[in-house]
Amino acid sequence: MAQISLSSPTRALTLSTFAFTICFAVWTIFAIIGLQIRELLQLTDTQFGLLVGMPVLTGSLVRVVLGIWTDRIGGRSVFTLTMLAAALATLLLSFATTYAQFLVAALGVGLAGGTFAVGVAYVSRFYPAGRQGTALGIFGVGNVGAALTKFGAPFLMIALGWQGAAQVYAAVLAVTAILFWLMSEDDPQQATATPRSLKAEFAVMADIRVLRFSLYYFFVFGGFVALALWLPRYLIGVYQFDVATAGMIGAAYSLPGSVFRAWGGALSDKYGARAILYWTFGVSAVATLLLALPLGIGPAGFIAITFVLGLFMALGKAAVYKHIPVYYPQNVGAVGGMVGMIGGLGGFVLPLLFGWLRDVTGDWSSCFAALFVIVLASLVWMQSAIRRLPDGQPA
Questions:
Q1: 10-63 confidence digits (pLDDT tens)
Q2: Residue 149 and residue 175 in one domain
């Protein structure tokens, strides 16, 4: 097969970003088809929440394993096999009839979200340190797959039913996997990589910086995902928006928050990831504090502040991953998988926390108080770590 006329780094980045976009669309499929499944099975709110959250949970938990496999056997193979496995699970989903079967299928669909750790390790090896932030920021734009599902899956579901929508998604993901395998190449370090024991792969997790970067990502990614899920409900409850308007605002919040991630990568390359994280945490702390205080902010002001918050979260997502190939060039998959796992768990745990805080306090703004505590902890920990280092040494 003739090679496409792109340089190896550009080809790897283009194919990986496209594949991750499709994977992210599949990962969030339950946000749409789950509505018909809920009516079909007459699920309670708790059962529905578990069903919708299951792919997010499993897609986060598998990132460490997939990242380590990528370090050991290469991103091209792991990316392809993971997409094929997720495609099979999505196809089998269309034949589920009981709640237990849907949950099992959701476990497999969640594999699609785990490809983030694979792509980070794969793409980073094609770029020098000075360009990795930009490259990984562009790769992270694949998060727009969630917007594709929000805008496109409803039409498929109306035309074909939820089963037909799942089958179309499975077919598209399978074709994407095949194209990725045929058009991609092994990463440049794979041929000379020295096999390491699993103990060596996991040893890096003992570095306290891995935990610190994970906390950063818990806020910038987990918090972002949680707000994207929570905003429609918040707008309806506080400002009495109708469901359609609240849903469109939520989708509009998600889309630029993904696209600006590429800009965050470029800024991290130019000014340094640390500087971008200072701006991210500083602005986010002010924004969440304003939203947490009983100031009686109107809907226009609320939307403006949350969009600023989402913008800086997007910049921060890229900045966190700029750190990883710099500090852990031989363990990008393992460390990237761990950080991505913790961030993904934030997207699962924080909406539950928001609901619990609302039930306990009766205060809608309590969700922003929780985010303020998390971002403040991130800022204090980063500053504390930097102050303990000699001048000029990265933290």
A1: 999 999 999 999 999 998 888 778 878 888 898 876 677 778 778 888 888 898
A2: yes
Is the whole model's pTM more than 0.85, yes or no? no
What DSSP string describes 321-335?
A: HHHHHHH-TT-HHHH
**87 pLDDT higher than 80:** yes
At which of 117, 152, 186 does a domain end?
Answer: 186
Do 283 and 220 form a contact (C-beta atoms < 8 A)? no
DSSP string, 225-279: HHHHHHHHHHHHHHH---HHHHHHHHHHHHHHHHHHHHHHHHHHHHH-HHHHHHH
Domain C-terminal end among 186, 213, 242: 186
* 3-state DSSP assignment of residue 142: helix
Q: What is the CATH number of the domain that holds 91?
A: 1.20.1250.20
Average pLDDT of 72-93? Answer: 94
Q: Are both 349 and 207 inside the same structural domain?
A: yes
111 lies in a domain? yes
| In contact, 320 and 277? CB cutoff 8 Å | yes
The distance from CA 101 to its chain's CA centroid, rounded to whole angstroms, is: 26
Task: For the beta carbon of residue 105, count every other beta carbon within 10 angstroms.
Answer: 24
- What pLDDT score was predicted for residue 189? 65
Domain that holds residue 333: 201-389
Which among 238, 245, 239, 243 has a CA at the least distance from the CA of 364? 238
- Asked if residue 332 and residue 274 are part of one domain, the reply reads yes
Does 192 fall in a domain?
no
Residue 92, in any domain of the structure: yes
Q: Same structural domain for residues 97 and 142?
A: yes
Q: Which long-range contacts (CB under 8 A, 24 or more apart) does 351-358 make?
A: 351/53, 351/226, 351/229, 351/230, 352/49, 354/226, 354/230
Q: Report the candidate in 334, 315, 268, 280 with the shortest Cα–Cα distance to residue 127.
A: 268
pLDDT digits (tens, 9 = 90+) for 127-156: 987 888 888 889 988 888 877 887 788 888
Binning pLDDT at 50, 70 and 90, where does residue 232 land?
A: confident
Residues 211 and 178 in one domain: no
Per-residue model confidence (pLDDT) at position 45: 65
> For residue 189, what is the DSSP state?
T
Q: Examine the domain organization and report whether 131 and 232 are in the same domain.
A: no
